[in-house]
Write a structure and sequence with these properties.
Blueprint lengths: L1 H17 L4 H8 L2 H12 L7 H19 L9 H20 L5 H7 L2 H4 L6 H4 L2 H29 L13
Helix pairs in contact: 1-5, 1-6, 2-4, 2-5, 3-5
Length: 171
């Protein structure tokens, strides 16, 4: 289930949505994933309680993301299919966060059928250019790994949502 929600459904719906709707719509909607995770945690785990600080902080963070994403020029261009796919991506990440702790193998395994529809054709010459290679390393190490660890440290420190519901690289 974790591989399907976090490894396949999330990436497939988000990337498909990016081809259908505005990137700003996808950016803003996908940023609701932590809020959706908290809401689902409150629904599924009756012992969980949301503090006022968590609620106000979450709403403030969402408004901040909106200001950054829309950069002062909010143009409402709704694409129902693309926006719905993005919401499905955010929900799948929320479910993924609740049900699994360690998932990489199953995510890769369950996304393999998607390659039948969209085969990979990597250009290794481009990938091995120093600028591209360093950008990929930056995204993999700093933007993914380090940010993931910091996110989990913050969740542990806040203690407002059950820590065992989230992914921890160092349990």
């Amino acid at each position: 289930a974790g591989g399907i929600f976090g490894g396949s459904l999330y990436f497939f719906t988000e990337n498909t949505a990016l081809g259908i709707t505005q990137a700003s719509n996808v950016s803003f909607i996908i940023c609701t994933a932590p809020l959706l995770t908290t809401i689902l945690s409150l629904l599924f785990y009756k012992s969980e309680k949301a503090s006022k600080g968590l609620i106000y902080g979450s709403l403030l963070a969402l408004m901040g993301v909106g200001l950054i994403v829309f950069n002062g020029s909010f143009v409402l261009k709704i694409s129902p299919i693309g926006d719905l796919l993005t919401l499905l991506a955010a929900l799948s990440w929320a479910f993924y966060s609740l049900i699994i702790k360690k998932i990489f193998f199953y995510g890769v395994l369950t996304i393999l059928p998607a390659f039948l529809l969209h085969p990979l054709h990597p250009d290794t010459v481009v990938l091995l250019q120093p600028a591209v290679l360093f950008n990929l390393l930056f995204l993999a190490v700093l933007a993914s790994l380090i940010c993931y660890v910091l996110w989990n440290v913050v969740l542990k420190q806040l203690g407002t949502v059950r820590a065992s519901n989230y992914i921890y690289l160092n349990p």
